[in-house]
User: Fold these one by one.
Assistant:
Number 1:
Amino acid sequence: MTLSDLSIRRPVFAWMIMAALIIFGGIAFSRMGVSQLPDVDYPVISISLRLTGAAPEIMETDVVDVIEGSMMTIQGVRSISSSSRNGSAGVTVEFELDRNIDLAQQDVEAKIQSILRNLPKDLDPVEVRKTNPEDNPIIMLAVESESLPRPKLMAYVRDVLISKFSTVEGVGDVQQMGYIDPNLRIWVSDRALNKSMLTVNDVVNTVGREHSELPAGFVNSGKKELNVRLLGEAASVQEFENLIINSRGGQPNYVSMRLGQVAKVEEGLADIRRIGRGMGRPAVGMGIIKQRGSNEVKVARAVKQRMQEVEKILPPGVRLAVNVDNTQFTERAVGDMNFTLILSAILTALVCWLFLGSWSSTVNVLLAIPTSVVGTFLVLYFAGFTLNTFTLMALSLVIGIVVDDAIMMLENIMRHREM
């Protein structure tokens, strides 16, 4: 017995199947993740390398060539490309499509660990990550202030605002853009050094030796064991200036001299090599990255709602605004698809009513379209797919064909009646 025969003999059963497909398909549609691109893992591994102050030629010969030579021995490598810049380099390893990207990443990390002895000692820890468009920020926020100094603004974003937005449902990570680490700058006076017969190395050695907190062990007192802590790190600029220079040229310095007598210490930022701008002013940016498989439109709306809550507690003079919103295109695509789906069902039902002249047949056709289309979302949901631009384009194409056919049938009917 075919499905059509069963539906004719048992119409109530057919109606229940149609209702179930529409209802559960609608539930699946509301729970499916919405994103601009499909949620897939591309077979590409990116390796980031940093060696401060190294020329591009040094990065190429001492770092990139060693990395590329080791990557060629990994199974499934399709191609390797690299780029070298001043102080940094990047190596991109592309694998075959059938290669498991998680296992490939483990092989790359293991290979890098085995060649660390052949790389420069001052090389920063190597970063290995999978390349996936889903890891790009979906919305970027800008924070600027006319009242707070730049270091305090960056500290406020790092300590307060990042935690506010990282707890939003669906947010996987929050990137800091235009952020520069705070540090202390020591401006050494050559005249004071010559007067005291000291060198810059003496100042550097003093900072490395005196500005440190070493483990001091324990003290046993009967049945008690107490932890001993040596407070060796300077907690403020004034304490830093009071560090004693107790060596001169590697020999003990018997003249009591403090760091503030030969240098000026001030709070500042690390070397500025990148800046962020928002609302026409220097600003600190926050890039919101959604969790894998979540609805990016829903996440963006939740972030904007959290913005309204955060704006009430911002310090005077601090402004928070949306700098880039990449979810607008996806939201419009979903809205157009919903409109096309409803329009196709109405036009098709209208054509069937004009052609057949039967309300029961029209209702059956009117329910057949959402049953087939909405029921598809149920299969997509359990298959782990997301609603992305490619899926929406395919559905819109199918629905558009239905609409075109309905319009052509309506035109033919009108022409036939005029004749």
Note: The first helix runs from residue 3 to 9.
Number 2:
Amino acid sequence: MKLKQLALIVGLLSSATAFAAPVTVAEIDAARSNGSLQQAWITGATAPTLSVYEGWVGSGAGVGCDVNTNSIFTTQTGTASRPGSLGNVFAYACRRAGVVSVLYSTISGGSLSAYTPHTIGALPERIRFVGTGNGCSSTVNYVDGTNTENNATVFKGCLQVAGTAVATVNDGAPTKPAGGFSDVEAALFPATIGGGNVTSFGAESQALVGQVFGVVVSTPLYRALQAAQGLSDVNGTTYDPANAPNITSAQYASIITQGGAYQTDWSPIVGAAGVGKKVILARRVATSGSQASSNAFFLKNPCASGVNAGYNPAGVADTTPTFEVTEGSGTGNVKTRLSTASTAGDFAIGVVSLENDWRADLVSAPASAGYRFVKVDSVHPETGDVANARVTAATGAYPFHMELVNFVASSATGFAAAIIPEITAALAQPAPASCATLPRGITLNPLGGSSCAVGVQVAKGTNLGNNCSPAQLTQ
């Protein structure tokens, strides 16, 4: 009898060990065949990619993914494993309360793509069905040193479906997104490209998290700004936020506005060292939430009215011999352009979210690590918090901080309709043990009810979901 009991215990332990393992393609195939598979497709912002992944994972069985069951599928090859560095089309899979589930994600269209599949029918590309035959050629492991619940097996080199084919291909994956996440509300994008009033297409809600943005420059420009402003470490190797140079909002607006006054060379900002130095602006495409955030913060577009309205951002068409404008579909394009400028000794500038960290890029993507954050109106986004880059925003000292929104399309049903609010809830109220491991550059909205620390992870203020309005301190 004891031997039978021992055998039963061993069997149960073996079963539990097998269950607590990353979801395999065979399991996904089986769930698809028997009708139990839960799946959805989301689109939208690039900046909070890691945060959305961690919201999908959640915190333990019954809340998000069951522990140790995460798999990630990407079209990329190579050794990169961290969500946010896996290209523009990918998928996450896990067991959620024991049920095999897959979340397809596309970030190639930026924030506006959370809306455009529904407002103007612009379906983006996505990864092909997750399962046997998807072409995934290798695996690597994603290991999160701060939170092991995020660990996953990453399947590389998977196939994808072009946007024009998504509506017609019958591959067992969703044919239309359920909605997604945006750095800013749809109203900050023109209706002509799929933004504006989206209430007839679905419901927009506060995601209850904030995203810190910063102005980045090429390293030669960083040093030239330091010299012009009489700062130390001009010829050093460190980039301490305390010694970082400053760009005022007015200076940056004078560079990025159509017909701006500071588009001949850099002399108005750095003096003699800028004479004859071409102004290089590495911006994002119009559908990008990072670009919409820059437009709203620096140009008050489309926030301002009357005589203050009408300040439009310069684009590729405004390029001249002295002023080069690039428009990247992803943040990586901005970082790469600044990095090539650094190598060439050129002066380049742009905006990226603080999810990006040049120190980490030096290790994982050195070819795109040639950018540095500067102060904006005398405040650096990393002051006192280089690792997490959120304290100055959380305390209200640093203003370039936007509040994310989510969008659930009216056409979404079942699991697809429920997963976006579920991710939002996980983002807004992480487990107390996860407060210290929130993704870099992300803050929590005080209205979310989080138990994390106010002024550290939780912002002291909110703009109540209107990124055209200044934040008001609530704590």
Note: The longest helix spans residues 2-19.
Number 3:
Amino acid sequence: MAIEIVMPKLGWTMEEGTLVEWMKQDGETVHAGDIMFTVESDKALQEVESFEDGIFRIPPDSDVLGKTVPVGTVLAYITKVGEASPFEQIPPPQPSPIATEEGASQGTPNYSMPPSLVQNGAHELPNISPRARRVAHELGVEWANVKGSGRTGRIVERDIRAAASVVSASATAPQISPVARRAAEELGVDVSALAAQMPGQRITREHVERAAQPPAAVSIPAATAQNETRTPIPRLRQVIAERMSASSQTTAPVTLTTEVDATELVKLRQGLKATGQSDTRPVPSYNDLLAKLVGEALTQHPQLNARIEGDSIVTSNTVNMGFAVDTERGLFVPVVRDIRNKSIRQIAAEGVRLVANAREGSLKSDDMNGGTFTITNLGMYEIDAFTPIINLPQCAILGVGRIVPKQVVVDVEAEKVAIRHMMFLSLTFDHRLVDGAPAARFLQQVKRFIEQPYLWLIN
């Protein structure tokens, strides 16, 4: 029996995915473990493996490549060698001759006799009126399975017409994905009216969202319109928008900002760069150092390493650190797991791999799941301080600004100043989970670790 290959569910929140590329072609032999195709779900690009041996079959009328379809949509089949695929048309058997009342035979059955009742050259006497048979023929209704409402259960004309109306309604029902139907209910979009505007097309969530937008109140002058470029919102941008909106609407965000003397951290990295000349491993970046020290701070302030699930606060016993990575396709947040039990060099090596995969578009969904805290660094863009948005369902996110040499007071009584490397930190936390004072103490601990790296390096 052919095995259906469907759009897989690659994450808890995944409702639909985009088929990016076929790795096997129709008719190719496939073995368990072979990559069949790649799917983009939310932000991740995932290779989908086969769990069976057989022949890979793609329906000839398939148009799903490059399109977003709901989870569970049939994409292809795996069949045994010599087995017909479900989409292959099997010629219907020639009907056996039907004897007439005079004993003669006819090459084809009368229209009044559905082929489903023809068995071994004989037929069963149908309990249907002659008029109902004629109407069934005119309307193309297969009456073999129609339930009769006449006396003794006989099929009459009204039964045939009722069956025809059901078939007609089914044929004209709008083609719409489950996600789009739910969006239409939430946005108040009339699916039937939308289907009438798109005859023969399948309604997607993008169609529903466009239909929900109010018409422009002011027309755009032709000269202005010619100077504009309009492009559809990419799927990734839609996902980012949805998550950012959900974060701002769900959480009670508060941002704390402090200035840190990062001079000792700068010296530490300079020392690592110097020793890195004789070491083939990646040189730890400031993000790697911050991940390690923030991980240590979170063990002392576990309230910030938590999330809300239903009516419970779930505190993680491990620190899985997410890093915001900017790419041409959008923002990705890959995760380095169990930061505390990894050395700085291990964190650096894993970070290099994840950043490269993010920019190449080859991140797996597992690479971005399970984060408990996130660091986002805009220092390379000459940003001093900003308000980061919490990465749900996490409790907090740390924004890191640029490191700038400044003249600061190092001894008030002696009126002594010095040039120090200064940096701003911005902590946004969910006030539903944590109050201001515990969050401030955590940020204070991070500041202390940056200013005195030996406090966490010896742990």
Note: Residues 307 and 394 are 5 Å apart (CA to CA).
